[in-house]
Design brief:
The structure is a homodimer of 395-residue chains.
Chain A (H helix, E strand, L loop, with lengths): L1 E6 L3 H12 L1 H8 L3 E7 L13 E2 L2 H5 L4 E6 L6 H11 L3 E4 L2 H17 L4 E2 L11 H7 L5 E7 L2 H13 L3 H10 L8 H4 L2 H15 L18 H9 L2 E11 L5 E11 L11 E8 L3 E8 L3 H17 L27 E5 L3 H8 L2 E4 L3 E4 L5 H5 L5 E6 L3
Parallel strand pairs in A: 1-2, 1-4, 2-3, 4-5, 5-6
Antiparallel strand pairs in A: 7-8, 7-10, 8-9, 10-11, 12-14, 12-15, 13-14
Helix pairs in contact in A: 1-12, 4-5, 5-10, 7-8
Organism (chains A, B): Candidatus Avoscillospira avicola
Family (chains A, B): Belongs to the homoserine dehydrogenase family.
Enzyme class (chains A, B): oxidoreductase
């Protein structure tokens, strides 16, 4: 039997408690021994909760209990959660977390700490909710030189963009509906401005290319400026507007990580990822291309990923699983504005003017022009055209 | 440094050699030590091959070399490959294989043998080519009670069905084109009759539900009887014909594994899996639904999966990874003919006759009728209608 604890009894933490309890039998079979939930840490009281007996307000109960081997961190943020996780790793306890902010900003440091204390630090739930990505990238695809990881990484913004296309809704209306459905927060800035996707790209980039990318090294553009004209221009070319987080190797061997709204053609599997779902494309020199699709958020899907990590930790209690990456290498990063990509330019200029400035193009609806040849964003911004929008096309 | 060997220098074996060589640096980084290819076993000579120095005709060279820790079995079939793999496991060597026939017919036995000798027996490449499935099912989704695994598991038949839809080609014409493109074998029976998909369902079922399903416990129907009328009936309902391999838990808690052509609606991610690609949907009580997409065959994608397994074996040289399942449990299997499913029935009977026999239905093109309520295949076959085709609908 292995005893475990949960930090934080919010949405994800209560999902982890529920999965550990409801699926106890199958977990014992998969893990090879019973996984018993001993503590749940929270500052609040939960009278009448079936987990009342496990509740504690004292972190030291968990930290100092030698029976607790694996801890799920579901507090969120990078202040108190970070302090607790550092103490747990240093005390020789294995940690699984859903906390993308903490991993994106302190992943390298925490992996080093885990290594120094011969324990596991896992974070599958931090990217793509329940979708398996961490182990596929670290292990299944280990035989590949990864060339690109690109995904629809934020369900809220994907829901808003799907509503704008399907119902012709304006951005503000679609956002209000997402809030009414409980998909978007009261303060939706982290989703809408792309910060949530940015953190996930940082983690995927580190897994794919072996060194940390801090959020400020990942230029990020959200979807607040997306209009019905963008959606119409994409549709007239058989494409959809999607907020993509991307990290890729450039022709010069540098890593380019960024978040921006893209036009995605129907030939891509990402075109078919709608509503609150996430999808991630991984490209490598042996696999070619694979795509992973599933719920990017939600109580039980996220808990599914946390519990999968806990099982892997149980399997590797004494011999930790190899998982680490180097610290940031800013000189190995490329500027996405200098990356040649296919682009749609929206401008009040005529086709002739666009072609004079940027070469052959095809006119779309909504003042859009699909450039025939890959171009850099810098060249487009410096073209002198009166720009309404500049959208890369995913290929 | 870890020394490894490859059995069989055919398509997959030469792909593994290529990946091990070309991606040596990234592999050393991921595995934590250099992986060096010491032997390739084949009966043939390969004069001028860059791997000539590694070639041996003598299996004993590999079996008796204590330096060789991990072996990739790429011979195929369940005769000589089976004999070699048993000897290797018994000698304490870790084995990774792409051999679906061997795993589907002897997986339980080989996993037991691996366990007894404290080594790993991995077979990611046996299902879905390069698509990660084995570890997601065994580990990432370990917190789930899996309810269903359904996939497009054979690229050749999916290519044929895509051609029939896109170009209005007859089955024979599409098959000939698949052969000309090198996707289908001269003798395409294993693909066309569904045997290849059947073997893969057996493996997925064992991973999902914990006991072996031998191919004769998985009723299998191929695509040779699919006509243009089937394709038209599906299209008129916004669906596509896809050969699906499925294993699922019935309402009674039994496991039902089968292979059959299905009508797949556009709302399913599998609808968008076209050509030679594979896609696998996994459903569980925490994750909801996830889908994995990628190349289901091919030299380098398959090699990618074999090499991923070899890296995992290197990580677990002394402490094997937990992976096993029980032997067959025929009394726990349900007959797919008794499984209530949505169905399309193709018959020369009128709508009134169909509704009199099977309840409310909707007329489609190609003499097709979409039944409103889930029905068993047995009930349809016993309805007395003159049946042209009976196709379950994937939901």
């Amino acid at each position: 039997m292995v005893q475990v604890a949960i930090l934080g009894f919010g949405t994800v933490g209560s999902g982890v408690a529920e999965v550990l309890t409801q699926n106890r039998a199958v977990l014992a079979e998969k893990a090879g021994e019973e996984i018993r939930l001993k503590y749940i840490l929270d500052t609040r009281e939960f009278p009448g909760s079936p987990f009342e007996a496990q509740l504690t307000h004292n972190f030291e109960d968990i930290l100092n209990d030698p029976e607790v081997k694996v801890v799920a961190e579901c507090i969120g943020g990078a202040t108190i959660a970070l302090e607790f996780v550092k103490k747990l790793l240093a005390a020789g306890k294995h940690v699984a977390t859903s906390n993308k902010e903490m991993v994106a900003t302190h992943g390298h440091e925490l992996l080093e700490l885990a290594k120094a204390h011969n324990v596991n630090f896992f974070f599958e739930a931090s990217v793509g909710g329940g979708i398996p990505l961490l182990r596929p990238l670290a292990c299944d695809l280990a035989g590949n030189q990864i060339t690109e990881v690109t995904g629809i990484l934020n369900g809220t913004t994907n829901y808003i963009l799907s509503e704008m296309l399907d119902k012709g809704a304006a951005f503000d209306t679609a956002l209000q509906e997402a809030q009414a459905m409980g998909y978007a927060e009261r303060n939706p800035a982290a989703d809408v401005e792309g910060l949530d996707a940015c953190r996930k790209v940082c983690i995927l980039s580190a897994l794919a290319f072996g060194f940390h990318v801090y959020p400020d090294l990942c230029p990020t553009q959200g979807i607040a400026a997306i209009t019905g004209d963008d959606v119409a221009a994409a549709a007239s070319a058989g494409m959809k507007v999607k907020l993509l987080g991307r990290t890729l190797k450039t022709a010069e061997g540098k890593v380019c990580a960024f978040v921006a709204p893209h036009f995605v053609p129907a030939s891509s599997q990402l075109y078919h990822v709608d509503g609150v779902f996430n999808g991630v494309v991984i490209r490598g020199n042996a696999i070619g291309e694979a795509m992973f699709y599933g719920p990017g958020a939600g109580k039980l899907p996220t808990a599914s990923a946390v519990v999968g990590d806990m099982v892997d930790a149980v399997w590797h209690l004494s011999q930790r699983r190899r998982l680490d990456w180097a610290d940031a290498q800013p000189d190995q990063m490329a500027d996405p504005w200098e990356l040649p990509l296919p682009y749609v330019v929206r401008t009040t200029a005529s086709l002739a003017e666009v072609e004079a400035a940027l070469g052959q193009a095809k006119a779309l609806d909504g003042n859009g022009y699909l450039l025939a040849a890959p171009t850099t964003r810098r060249a487009i911004e410096q073209s002198g055209l009166a720009l309404l929008a500049v959208r890369p096309v995913f290929q």
